[in-house]
């Protein structure tokens, strides 16, 4: 972020320099030395908060001893899209290992009331054309998303290929046999020629670093393990309960309006206000499907990616809160070639957008003091933007109290309630809407899977010592026949489904080509991965520089930059460019950048 902004030619209604000072002051309030270490895992004393509240069957079963062609770790959208693309290429011998009792990944765990996608469903839900499925609303609810997940599993016959309620503990490359040995928490002994780590980025919940959580005598749960036995399926049991909601991020924006309506009393504990723009959800028009031409979803996805990353566009196909910042479209071709002009115009345009969002708070919240506390003072992309049409109005209800901690957070949990700003608030139920540990590329650390490649050195150790190194964000040197679906060194957009779908196509292609060409081992070439990593570091510098100016959040590791973080960056040219690069790479059909070992003439598939 530039330290000095020159005067703008048109009246803005605000002073960019003054706004920069305000942003810096609010950021300083929230800085902590412990960064992500401030949070606590759902284990040990908090293990009771990590129970699967949605499973209807027992997880007990006999251990398996089995060989498969491809083993996929994770049954969320990343794993399903990898499996779907493999199926399209004729690879059907697949096993999906999933911790939950069903498919869905993050959406399996996020079955809290009010859950919806925050990206338009027509670009978020993948494979709509292949499935012949049209979402009912512009932003569909959690149950509809899980229904869509099941449609994918049914179409590609994945249900019988899943090991649910199972956690992969380790996957180790056997160089003599050219396969992976996989161990699970059920004692399974599995072997696979290929492994796909589709472990996701939002799957490991965290608790706030607050003393006394274990002492609370009332009910409590994390939003990823919503306990409907406590609240009632329709939340009818909240009518006589005093409820505390800790957190005001993307989850809370959706739960708080419902909690406020149902609870006897709701206390919302806020450290940093969310940026809440208009959602304007609405039913899908009756003629939507008939108006679409073949390839429409891919075109719509690309259009969405282009607009929110400042690329030229002809028409805004999505037209929502994500795409309403169109500063780039007003620049001349000459101005677009000037990085200084582009950067300044985009920044001032973002400030204007945030001014509108803060003005919306004044329009909707009746109490002026409460309204001031609900205003976000940071750039729009410093935290995940939120969209909702009832959240702000909820603070007009007499039974809803905002407890703003001015950046400090909750002080302590007691037997009977919560202490914040020196005041104890007695409550009957605490809802921890405190989010997730974000992987930051450290696949092993957040998934809990020890991944050991050809050298015998675990992936976590390698990346801790020298930093991440991949080819295209999918292939990793020293890890043969291994693929990762993640943000690290990949092309990432606000619509993460683009990343998952693009990686899935890459995985389907490489595995099928290996099988077709008699290749027993394919891994990223060290030199090719080094070149890709160097390009990532160079292109992601502006992003990391921007995030250092932001309020602490999972986007920037709570402002504690870790060792080798620059190698965990994303593809700087953007999600569309990354997708095109991989498409062009596959079109060349030469597997450039992969180190290949073919089967010998005497080897069979079983021996290779």
Number of domains: 2
- The CATH class assignment of the largest domain is Alpha Beta
Radius of gyration: 24 Å
**Unreliable segments (pLDDT under 50, ≥5 consecutive)?**
1-9, 327-333, 601-608
How many beta-strand elements?
23
Average residue-wise pLDDT? 91
Structural class call reads alpha/beta
CATH topology type of the largest domain = FAD/NAD(P)-binding domain
Instruction: Please work out how many helical segments DSSP would assign.
Output: 18
- How much of the sequence is in beta strands? 15-25%
Could you explain how this protein is built, in words?
The chain has 608 residues and is of the alpha/beta class. The chain folds into 2 domains: 216 residues, FAD/NAD(P)-binding domain; 299 residues, FAD/NAD(P)-binding domain (3-Layer(bba) Sandwich). It has 18 helices and 23 strands. Strands 2, 3, 4, 5, 6, 7, 20 and 21 form an 8-stranded mixed sheet that branches. Helix 2 packs parallel to helix 16 and helix 16 packs parallel to helix 18. The radius of gyration is 24 Å and the shape is globular. 44% of the residues are buried.
Key phrases:
single chain, alpha/beta, FAD/NAD(P)-binding domain, 31% helix, disordered N terminus, disordered C terminus
Can you describe this structure in just a few lines?
By secondary structure, this protein is an alpha/beta fold. The strands form six sheets. Strands 2, 3, 4, 5, 6, 7, 20 and 21 form an eight-stranded mixed beta sheet that branches. The protein has a five-stranded parallel beta sheet with strand order 9-18-10-11-14, covered by helices on one side. It has a three-stranded antiparallel beta sheet with strand order 1-8-19, with no helix packed on it.
